[in-house]
Specification:
CATH class of the largest domain: Alpha Beta
CATH architecture of the largest domain: 3-Layer(aba) Sandwich
Helix content: 25-40%
Strand order of the largest sheet: 3-2-1-4-5-6
Radius of gyration: 17 Å
Strand content: 5-15%
CATH superfamily of the largest domain: HAD superfamily/HAD-like
Largest sheet: 6 strands, parallel
Shape: globular
Number of domains: 2
Number of helices: 8
Amino acid sequence: MTHFRQGTRAVIFDLDGVIVDSEPLHQEAFRLLLGELGIEESAIGDWNRFVGTADRPVLLQLIEGRSVVQSVDALLERKGALFLELLRQREPIFPEIPALVEDLARRYVMAVASGSLRTAIAGVLGMRGLRKHFQHAISVQDVARGKPAPDLFLRAAELLGVTPADCVVIEDSAPGVAAARAAGMRVIAITNTTEAGRLAGADAVVARFEEVRALLLE
């Protein structure tokens, strides 16, 4: 697996499910939002179908066919506020992440490329001194298309001043893996939120952050 170190100049992290154990918080924020709208919680159904999907398409599916007075943008802002409050309460950064990010930053330029809103990204990177290790943080609000389109990762490479072939992406979802591959980047998928079989398109599938460290540093 030495090919992950050879020729790599940049590491691009997904946020949700990679840096922070936030999928349960996104689900809870949408549950609270639906409650405020008087929509039954069962509308969420199987949350796994939304893992790796940006907030807007999730919201549009949840309110489809329902009479909702507020604009989509207003609802997304409210969901974002609910998420940030949960994030502040729980600070669910994966324990291994601060040391891993610090060590990787000594060797590579780094970015976060996430389907989350800018406020959510800022909230996460504001914890545990993480922000200083990333040259750029790209939100779905900064590109035309979210994952599985490659836009987020291509924008990250552009801002970092590297080619897609120079980049290794760390992802946890099938749409994220597809986006990284579409961008022409190598991808390490970690099974924090998605079973290994659904991540088979990645160059490597790992279960622990120690394996990420081994592939990129050791």
